[in-house]
Design a protein that fits this description.
Jelly Rolls, four-stranded antiparallel β-sheet, alpha+beta, 6 helices, eight-stranded antiparallel β-sheet, single chain
């Protein structure tokens, strides 16, 4: 009897091990299917990306109208680079100067913009009408002097340039005599960002504090102030720095005050908006968002597969918008990867099928919605 029980136990264990091995083999097969599909999608994307870059180079090389120093952009705008860096990479022989570029792309958006391209670095510089030193005059109240900054570009094109860049900056200098930016908790000066909001920091990227470059380096004229001019000294001082928070740039307005004393002076100098344009040319492999596709030159709105955290996802990309604008990307569902389910437990299998069915249904409804529109 004991021997029979031992045999039955051995058979049970053998069957259990066999079932587990079958499940492991099934998992391995599923993994190989997913890995094959992943490699196929990666290869397909790399081929498309190579074709886009080749097409861009061909368009730039075949453009009959020189985009440098031209008073007007070439007709059609299709041959224009999106940043100075893309132009430099397409033709390393280009020299620094004024060029036409189209950051938001040729398919949608606004007219191309004329910028200064530093071909030594590939950086894009946007010109404006407040680059020279300007006197703020004499007035008393906070922001009583205000100057609007007019650029050789629209705000949308500059926002697109920032989206295509890893770094953007804009320098500000204020020469002062008895003309504080802030005194006794009162802000007499500020600048407005691209959305018109007031900003009180004059260097760096920390928009939560009033600070200048000397405050960041702790080298201000007085120890208890964060800007040289805030000391309100009756001798020439200066604050200078560079705003590096690209989401706020460009500076659209400069505001100064408390220069009513006879010996008070306030002179501001605003630098150009400068962006590296580096995100437009960096190869990141498989796209993880609509923004990656947009930066790689995709212009046709529609459904796309992107790489999610755990699996491929299907998203709707509206390329008539910028990545920072609402509804630029809409999540649709997970990519349908066909594989055989492993029946580890009937409850899990049922739940898994229900979730898959609901996801497909929602995806189909979403597709119908966009097709109808």
């Amino acid at each position: 009897m004991q021997r029979l029980l031992a045999i039955l136990l051995a058979l049970t264990v053998t069957n259990a091990l066999s079932t587990e091995l079958d499940q492991v083999r099934q998992l391995q097969e599923n993994f190989e299917i997913l890995a094959t599909k992943f490699r196929h999608l990666e290869t397909k994307f790399q081929e498309q990306e190579s074709m886009l870059k080749l097409l861009e180079k061909q368009q730039l090389a075949s453009a009959k109208i020189d985009i440098k120093d031209a008073e007007h952009p070439p007709p059609g705008h299709k041959a224009l680079p999106r940043t100075c860096l893309t132009a430099r990479l397409a033709n390393p022989l280009l020299t620094s100067g004024l060029y036409w570029i189209d950051p938001d792309g040729p398919a949608f958006g606004e007219e191309p913009i004329r910028v200064y391209c530093n071909m030594n670095t590939g950086w894009t510089e946007v010109l404006h009408d407040s680059e020279s030193a300007m006197n703020s005059g004499h007035c008393t109240s906070p922001g009583c002097y205000s100057r609007h900054v007019n650029y050789n570009a629209t705000l949308r094109q500059m926002a697109a340039l920032a989206e295509l860049s890893n770094e953007c900056s804009q320098s500000i200098k204020y020469d002062c005599v008895s003309s504080p930016l802030e005194r006794n908790g009162i802000s007499y000066a500020w600048w407005n960002d691209r959305n018109g909001h007031p900003q009180y920091f004059w260097s760096g990227s920390n928009s939560r504090v009033h600070v200048c470059q000397c405050g960041i380096e702790q080298t201000c004229f007085e120890n208890d102030v964060r800007c040289n001019c805030d000391s309100d000294a009756k001798l020439p001082l200066a604050d200078h720095g560079a705003i590096t928070k690209k989401e706020l740039l460009p500076v659209t307005r400069l505001n100064f005050g408390r220069t009513q004393r006879p010996n008070s002076t306030g002179i501001h100098t605003l630098g150009r908006l400068v962006c590296d344009g580096r995100l437009a040319v960096v190869n990141k492999g498989l796209p993880t968002s609509c923004a990656d596709l947009w930066r790689n030159g995709f212009v046709n709105s529609g459904l796309y597969s992107v790489k999610g955290n755990k699996q491929f996802e299907k998203v709707y990309c509206d390329f008539s918008k910028l990545p920072s604008e609402p509804d630029f990307q809409t999540w649709v569902g997970y990519e349908d990867v066909k594989s055989h389910p492993v029946p580890i437990a009937s409850a899990k299998t049922t739940v898994g099928r229900a979730v898959t069915s609901r996801t497909r249904h929602e995806q189909e409804r979403t597709n119908e919605k966009y097709i109808a529109n």
